[in-house]
Amino acid sequence: MKPMNKVTLIGLGAMGVFFAPRISEKLGAGFRIMASGARKDRLEQKGVTINGINYRFPIVTPEDNDGPSDLVIIAVKGYDLPQALEDIRNQVGPETILLPVLNGVDSEKQTADIYGMDHVLYSYMRVSIAMKDGKAEFDPEKGLIHFGEAKNDPDQLSHRVLAVEELFSRCGIPYKIDSDMIKGLWFKFMCNVGENMTCAMFGVPFGAFQKSADANYFRHAAMWEVIRVANRLGVDIGQNEIDRQEHTIGRLPYQNKPSTLQDLEAGKHTEVDMFAGTVVRLGKELGVETPVCEMFWHGIHLIEDRIFGEI
Questions:
Q1: Under 8 Å between Cβ of 126 and 117
Q2: Which helix (H) or strand (E) holds 123?
Q3: 68-102 per-residue burial string, b: 16 or more CB within 10 A, e: under 16
């Protein structure tokens, strides 16, 4: 197995910063950020501050063609994924592995539709990162990147999984290889829909779930809508997964906020279509009622309309 020594990251936001400093430290110029236009100018002039340290990572543009990368980490927002998949085209060769770490449950499929599933690994992240004005704060020892094939036998990992595992181990990036990545993706999606949508709709931090029965009413109702959709698709999640998340939510710092609320407070568009919108769409296709997610979907779009002066 040849070690990975050339890695490109597209999306230096709240997920990308989890990887960037540690991979850069080990690979040097072999690690690059893909950016163009105003984003490229901003990164070159101001860099990004991660846990109090300012970084200026090497930049590669979509037009640059210096040969394929061993790994491309795709960490953009859901609404930017189609453009990102076009932008990385010069980075993808016959052996390139693509790792979309976006929220949601279909970024792997969107990536595979263009480049083929033989290039794509499943992944999702469990980390709480606060990012504002180009500054990110998080505990690098508490987050995890989960990745792998759809199914993973610890005694017979694929060469692709082993290659990424070697890189992450070398770089000190905490990771876990799930035996069932599809179930893991839906578990993370269930948590995101319940927590992101409730906090964004009502403007409350994660701590609200530690003391408010009303906040948990909406969170749990949305989670069960995701569960019923997932079950209809053959994904086995349920009360055990909700119970598992209760332990996590109780340990988060009270004032931490999920990404959707951070986006609204920063005057940005959100990923509501990827969260509540996906549940509503799949619910209609599968005959599953999703009234709470439909309320979140329309309600957060209404907040966006107010923020952007549409009403």
A1: no
A2: strand 122-126
A3: bbbbbbbbbbbebbeebbebbebbbeeebbbbbbb
Average model confidence (pLDDT) across the chain: 95
Interhelix angle 291-307/278-286, nearest 10 degrees: 150
- Integer CA distances (angstroms), 171 to 38, 160, 166, in order: 30, 17, 9
**Best CA proximity match to 50, nearest among 72, 30, 23:** 23
pLDDT digits (tens, 9 = 90+) for 128-184: 887 877 788 888 888 899 999 999 999 999 999 999 999 999 999 999 999 999 999
Strand order in the sheet with 53-55: 53-55, 48-50, 135-137, 130-132
Pick from 110, 113, 106: which is nearest to 230 by CA? 106
pTM (global) more than 0.85: yes
Q: Which residues contact 42 (CB under 8 A, 6 or more apart)?
A: 134
Q: What is the pLDDT of residues 35-69, one digit of tens each?
A: 999 999 999 999 999 999 999 999 999 999 999 99
- How many Cβ atoms sit within 10 Å of the Cβ of residue 305? 11
Alpha-carbon distance of 208 to 80, in angstroms, equals 30
Task: Answer for the pair 36, 61: CB distance below 8 angstroms, yes or no.
Answer: yes
Is residue 69 within 8 Å of residue 33, measured between CB atoms?
A: no
Residues with Cβ < 8 Å from 38, sequence gap 6 or more? none
**What is the predicted pLDDT for the residue at 138?**
87
Distances (CA, A) of 164 to 76, 111, 142: 20, 18, 20
